[in-house]
# Entry
Amino acid sequence: METTSGTLDEALQRLHASGPEFKGFLSNHGPMAIEAMVRNGQAGTVHRWLDTYEHKLEDVPVAKAPVTDANWQQALGETDRVTDWTAYFTERVAERPWRDVLAEWWPRLLPGIAGAATHPVIRLGHAVRSLLTEGENAPRLAEFAHALGYWAARHLPLPTAVRPTGRATPAEALAAVPRIADQRVVPVQGYAQLPETKGWLTTTESLHVPEDPEAVRQGLTALVRAATLNYGDYGHGNGIMLVHAATAPNAVLRILPALPQNLWAPSFTVAWAATSAITAIYAADTPRRAPDAGSLTPEEVFARAIANGNEHAIKFADTALDVAAASEDGDTRALSAALNAVALIDVDD
# Structure
């Protein structure tokens, strides 16, 4: 454990010398991928992978002006203020326990989950998992602050508020999500099509959101499972982008234990809205059979994602392993979905 924790911390320190995006809008997946590698027994591959990956990264953006308790609302969603936001959260985490900072800011940030194609909440999910499982130290708390700062700078609500009041299960609701008219778009252009997509809002609002915290946790777990299996059938619509329909709600699921329980139900609602939106934008119209995981172990499936090398394949395999671990009766469909990502995603994408 000490060796793997040290690898994680060293890699995070390397990554914090770079900004959260590159080439204008592409997210720096390094912190997410290396945490997944360490978590799944591949700590020995972290620095070799990072040696290749970090060449594409860019410097930390120049700071503009301090974010304060008085002006944060005006700075929310200002993409060029990411360094200001990171500095703000670094100060907050130095002053208060990280769980207290999370509880205060989660309701403020959650409505903007759609920003940067949900990457900020995914990065935060990995950061929180490392804090919960590995414990607190300076590099992990710094990563927590970086993730919050990225989310605050990229905060973006969906164009239509989603208020589920129905009785459908996550699997039932996800199966009914319609597709937008033009799927050859970046996420922001796809979000703009959602209000005009017939049936999207009514289908999204058909989901049942329970009030009991344990039932909420079970519902969110079911959503992650449904989105993961859905990728196995429909991932060929966009092999990279549809990954986030599963990894975003899984990030929320990982963060739940660190949140007050009164925030769990709204977290489920927003996670579902994000999954529904990404599915509508990027899932294929017709299913295609995924590669069969057969007798492969979860460790062997994750090793194939590492061999692929693409950060999205690694992140999705990490989520698929969570789903497989919670499955009963030897269900290997989540592992097959992970193999589908490996097949669909090229390392250079």
Q: What stands out?
A: The longest strand covers residues 21-22.
